[in-house]
Amino acid sequence: MKRILLSLLLLTFFSIVYAQNVAAIAGMKGNIKILRDKKTIIAKTGDIIKNADEISSGEESFAAIRFIDNGATTKLFPNSIIIISASVEGNTLNKRNSISKGTARSQVSPRSGNYIVETPNTVASVKGTDFLATYEDFLTTIGVIDGEVEVRNKTSDRSIDANANDVIQGDDEGNLDSIDDSSYIKNNLDEEAAEGQVYGGSDDNNSTDTADRHSLEIELVDPDGTIKKVRISYE
Predict the structure, then answer these.
(1) Does 140 map to a domain?
(2) Were 54 and a residue from 2, 35, 38, 162 both cysteine, which residue would form a disulfide, CB within 3.0 to 4.6 Å?
(3) CB 98 within 8 A of CB 83
(4) How many structural domains are present in the chain?
């Protein structure tokens, strides 16, 4: 799979966060929507994600969402809903993904601020790792691909430190258990691999020529009206 790199050009980090631009859609396929201020936007590659935007994916639809500090990528699977938010602490951007339905994969760089994935009943906290999270039928499943994830149930406050290949499940009753399910991680990675071109910038709704998809430049506007740019490039 092609690796997504985000380089900042003519960009002031704090002005971006102040303007509430926290991420961008680096690649997608199919039907991706952004809900912002009660208005629905049909997404395309290169769209900016603002703080507290809700992102949803349709059937056979995928999206790669890259945070503006180059510290993490969230990959949204089909039929999923997630809210993206972030806040500044010192020189780092703390990130939070709230999943209300479906599955997302998080790939987090070390030393890039706190990173939290939450569902209605479970919280997963990391500082550098690769893991999957699913919320369906009031059940949360966390599968660790690499690194370590602290998983906590919101009801019971019970927590488990999960490592590579561990699968943890939590529910509304306060249960939090390590389960023997080798298929959860494998099946999701197989589904993602089948759509690997998504994360190289391919997009059914994007009119950008194929030759331009490897270098995508996005304009952002500071609170003072100054236009600055972010370039997302693909290897």
Answers:
(1) yes
(2) 35
(3) yes
(4) 1
